[in-house]
Every structure is written in C-alpha cells, then in structure tokens.
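Q: Structure for this?
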Amino acid sequence: MHSKPAGASFTAPNVQLNDAGKLKHFLTTEGLSPELLTDILDTADSFISTQNRSIKTVPILRGKTVVNLFFENSTRTRSTFELAAKRLSADILNLDIATSSTKKGESLQDTLWNLEAMHSDMFVVRHSDSGAAHFIASQVTPDIAIINAGDGRHAHPTQAMLDMLTIRRNKGRFEGLVVAICGDVLHSRVARSEIQALKTLGVAEIRVIAPKTLIPKDIEDLGVRFFSNMDEGLKQVDVITMLRLQKERMQSALLPSQSEYYKLYGLSQERLGLAQPDAIVMHPGPMNRGVEIESSVADGAQSVILEQVSNGIAVRMAVMAMAVSGQQEARKAQSES
Amino acid sequence: MKHPNSRIQIDHATWFSEGTQHQGTLFIEGDRIVAIDQEPEAFEADEHIDASGLLMFPGFVDCFAYMPEPGFVDKGTIDSETRAAAMAGFTTVLCSPETHPVLDSTALVHRVHEQAHRSGHTDLKVIGAMTQKLEGQQLSNMHALHQSGCLALSQGFQPFETLNVMRRAFEYAATFDLLFVSVPWCADLANQGCAHEGALSGRLGLNGVPEVAETLAVAQQLLLAEATGLRLHFTGITTARSVELIQAAIARGVDVTADTSLAHLLFTDQQLLGFDSRYHIQPPLRTETDRQALMAAVKAGELMLSSHHCSQDIASKATPFAASEPGMSQYDSLPAALTHLVEQGIDWHALQKALCLAPRQRFGLESTGIQINAKADLCFIDPSHEWHYNRENAASTGTNHPWFEQPLVGRNRLTLKSGRIVHQELR
C-alpha cells in the first residue's frame, strides 16, 4: 500500500460509458472514440429517413419517461428534445426551473432525487454551471441517463453532433477538411464540444478566429490553430461555424463596439469568397444578423443553418435511444453479477 | 487530559536537530522538557511512553487556517477544528479573521481565544482584521488587537478600497512593528474565477483565475512594504513567479517571508478533470510547474507550510464545481500528506523547518526545539502507520478532502501541549 497518490478519483470521459464501452449518459464529446461518434451519426442518419414519413414516431422509448430539466431558459433546444422524445414514443415532462446562478446545490440535488423517485428514465439537463451534467451523472442520479443539453461554457454535445452530421451529409467525410470556428469561443460551449468531436473524427485542421479577448488561454493545447485575422483564417476552409455574439459582451470590456466587431469578424459575402467555393456555413443559433453574419450569407446558397435544425432532432433521437439502451445494459450486467 | 504538573518519560524517541537525527529518552515535568537521556534525580514518571518507530517533532504551528466560528457552525466549531488540529500534530494554530462577524475587535478576539482555551486541544491565535469589518476603508484598532493576543493582522481575501488605504494601513502597522499576513489576491483580476486560468480551465469552461491575480498583488505589496518598512508574510502563495518575486525582494533586504498551502504541494489543476468539487479551493490549484517550484522552495527552507484548513458541510460541496464553496479540510489527513511529501523528495528536516521552526520565529512564538528547558510542545508521527480515513476517525466536521474514504499511510499518534497529552492513540 502506498500513501494516496495525488490523482483524481474519476475522469470526465468514463462517467458516460457503461462497462461495455457503450453510452449510458451523453455529457461531452470529449473522450469518446471515433467509432462511438460515428455510431451516433449512423443512428441519427437512420432516424432522418423516419422523419420523412407521414407517421414519424418509432416505438423505441415507449413506456419510458424523459424529463426536460432546464435550469437555464431555452425554448429552441428544449423543443427539439421534446420533439425527439415524442418521436421515440417516450412520455415527456417539461420542467422549467428558473434558478439564479448562486442558488445552492442542495435544492438541485433534492429536485433530482424527487424526480428519480418518480421513476424517470432520462434527464435532459441544461444548467448555467460548467460540469453540472457531470455532477448529476456521477454523484446524484448515476442510474438515470443524463443528456447534457448545455452546461455553462463547458459542453453542448448534441449541438456538436448535429453539426458533425450536417458536415458529413454535405461533405461525405471528415478526412482532409479544414474547419473554422469564428467568434466568441471563450463563452461558447458549442465551440468546445465541436473542437473535441472534430479532432476525434479526424479533420485535417481546426481553426479558431477571434480577437484575443474572446479566446480561452492556451487554446492551442486543444490542437487548434488560432487566427486573429479573419481574412487569413478563412483561406481555403471547407466548413465555417459562426458563433453567436451576445450583446452584453460590449459592456464587459471584451470588445469596443458592435460595428468594429462586425467590420473585423463579421462573415460577409466578400469574406466567404476567401473560403473554398463549396464551403458550407453553419451557425448554432440564435443568429444576430448584422452582428456576426451578413443576412445574405445566412440565407445564401452555402448556408446549411436550417438543415442543422432538422438534423438536431435526429441526433437527439439517436443519443436518447443509445443512452437508455446503455443504462439497461449496465443494469442487466449489475443484476447478473 | 493530564494535570500540568504530571511527569512523562518518553523512551526511544527519534528527532531531528541541526541536520542530524537523534535518539534518546525525554523527561518532561510540568510544561517543560527537564532532561534528555540523563534521568533527573527522584524522577518518578506518571506516564511512560514508548516512542519506538515514531518521529518526534516540536509541535506544528499552522500559519493560516479557517475556523468556522463565529458564524458558520454548520461547518464545524472551534472545538471540533482545534481538536482535529491537535490530532494532526499542531500545538498552535493561527486563524483567519474572515468569520462572521469579522474578527476586528478585542472583544471578539477574546471570545475566540477563550473558546479555544476552554476546549484545550491546541493554542488558537487570531490574525486580526487590518481594517474594520475587512471593508478596506477604516483601519482597525491594530495596536489593541495586538495587545489582546493577535500575532498578526490580515485582510484575508478582502481588498483595500484604494491603494492609498493599503499604504496607510501598512505604515500604521509598521509604526508598531506589527506583522501583516497577506493573502495575495487581486479580486478584480480573479474575476470570480474558480480554476487556474490555463488550457484546462479553457477546456472545461470554468472561469479562470489568471496567475497575475496573485503575482500582481505580490509585486505591489512587496514594493509598498519596502517603502513603508512593513513586516510582511504572504500566506498560501501558489505560483512559481511569486516565489521568484519574494526571493528577489529578500535578496534586496525586504522583511518578507511566505508560506504555501498544503493543497498546492499535493495537487495541480489537472485534478479538476471530472469536476470534483473537493478540488475547488481558493486560490485555485495551479500547474505542475508551479507545484514543483513550491516544492523546491519548501525543500530549500525558503517557504513555510500552512494548512489553509477549511471545513465545509456536505451541502456546500454537493453542487456543480463553480457553485460549490471553496476550501479543503486538511487536518485529518495531514500527517499522511506529510508522509506523501517525504516520498516525493522533501525530507523531514525541511518539513520541520517549514511547519515548526520558521513559523515560530516569524510569529514571535517561544522557540520549542528539542532541548532542556524547552516547552514540551511535541507531536509523534508514525510514517508507516496504515489507516483508513473515514467519518469515524475524522475529528474535523468537514470531510471535504479528496482522500476521504481512502487508505492512507502516516499518522500522528501523540500530541503534547505544554506537557499535557492532548491527543493520544498509542495504547
């Protein structure tokens, strides 16, 4: 026996997998294998075909209860999760829990334990604190499938996977692609999850484009290239993801003004011309037209922004189905042992 | 608890002094070591202790700890936390003024000292507030606080309202040769962060506390201390750059000393992967480069070691990382942590200097080396004792430490405070 080594008791990625390496929670794209991410995309692809039928529901989660737990408001994301759950035939309960960021976890824990006692099968969680979904999955209700619908600035894995699906459906591959993520990377959980997924799926290069005030320190350690000059950064890229810039950033000394930002980092038709001629333009929404993106680009031929929304339902159906099945396997393995 | 005039004989004691290891028999009468090896005439011991296999140290002095009283009794009491300190080997603990209410008056200081005295586990010495209510505006009655037993003054994490207030506070303290214990922290630059600003905080999406939130405060206060003649002690420094700045100041004659907190020698920001809120401390865990620089400075005898012990109730940590309250409960596992540091290359001589000798000198406490007529403040560490850290054997109310419910090696088996046995588990 040694005195306790200075090591963490658990690491982030393992919490979301069962002993067989299958998804039982979906918390982050980090630490998942390329095979697993591809599996999510393939499953989502198969659901896309069901979405074109007149009867769109499939009975995969019949009799299961999904609870949408949104500690932070979001009509759009919540609706797509609700729709995804309904199309899988699950019963869905929507809980809007308005909380201040300082509210203590005791009540968070109690809320979850109460919902667990009602025999829920899945929590879809959005929370303003980074790591909230990990906290719930590892310490509060590990036997309920947790789907992270966005935690602080940390991760938004379903958004990242719907972006991956959109890229794959448009480009047919990840190998060799150059992807640029532009704008407020510092505050973006989407950017973090995208970077991890793109790395795992093997794109040729990931670029982040923004002024230094909107870039996390040491971002290069994540395996990306940093550009402060957007014209340089957009050269020859295949995929452009624009990030939403919240207006309150102007008040916090991160940027001087909306007009200067748009001038330097807005995606105009002219700038888009620097990328590959068949480059696609993505945006996780909601968009600020005229702040980070020119209207004609958002509505133009290279924009796949609405396609992202449709793909979002299929991706959410995929991870919900996979996580419930992963939990069932884990329970079965537990009862057998 | 033995009455003060009891006689204790300690056989087979092993201790460190002036760079070498000694062995022998100690004879204690009242609160003093009365003889070493040569038994005094007519010495009849009330208690015989066999210290075989144990390392004997002068009682540890904690330069900085948080007491939950007054104000936060759900996190523990002065009784529970000083008992935990005594079990860890501390015979003197200096505590932060950041309680509720703030320890800025002689009445409150007396009350805290009195409570600790009644408990009788270890000496507790308040570090008084340097400004009233720690608001950083109006100076506290520093001289009176000193008279009532405060060994030093501090602002904790609370800022001075202006640099001019800081300068005046330093000048006033220097008038009476009072020691200022600084927690170097620019709250403004820390920007409500909860993790070291670096690649990992970026990846995890946690608000970062940049290195300059500490180093800017260190540099600023070193210059002001130099200009005002203040005696300055930095507590809980976390960065390699702070070590350099302090070394350079010492070299040009500034009256400055410093300590780092135990957590910063044990862990780095890499432990935050997984969002375990037990690693949420303030100032945050830094990089491996920083940890190595702190280790080297402790090893070289240039840096003292404090606990920054902070007991938390379960609810305060049962939240997502950023929402949890910062702090680590250090006392229960501290002897195991010291044993771990020795495995990592800091020897017991250096730890003795960092935990006993240097703090006594800096805070003006009676020197208690292992010698005749020295006060019998002693602790006895068994570096090979295997035990399991759990609720039953934890004295602190808080079990907010990453090693909780883990097997550990290294334990303090006996503590003497002024010749009284205040902790004993040898029989």
